[in-house]
Structure formats: C-alpha cells, structure tokens
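To: structure subgroup
Subject: Chain for Friday's discussion

All,

I'm putting the inputs and outputs inline so they're searchable in the archive.
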Amino acid sequence: MSGTGPTDATTVLSATLGKNANKDIHGAVVAQERKNADGVWTCKITAGGTGWKDKFIPAGCVKA
C-alpha cells in the first residue's frame, strides 16, 4: 500500500505469469489497483514474453 492516509491510499495486487505460461505471455505482470478515495479497481498489464501481442490484454485492462 502507498499513500498518506486512509482516504488516499492505493492498494495493488499483482501477479507475474510464469512456470507453465505460454512463452508469448511468460513474464507478463497483471496488476489490480484500487484507489481507496473512490474505491474503483483498475487493471494494468505489463507485457512479457518474446511473442507478446496487445491482443492478449483482457477486456477491462490497459497496457501499463
């Protein structure tokens, strides 16, 4: 968590795709971020893999 108080803190949950993930997405990072001021969750994807294509980004997520 980051921020200076309970109303402006941000919570981030992230996972790195690995082990048995396809080589095209291996190493991609999926992050869910919640701004406590408004309670809205957002999704960001950091590309990974040698064959990464933006079409791999799930609906509702954006490229970081």
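Points worth raising on Friday:
Residues 1-51 form one domain.
The first strand starts at residue 10 and ends at 16.

D.
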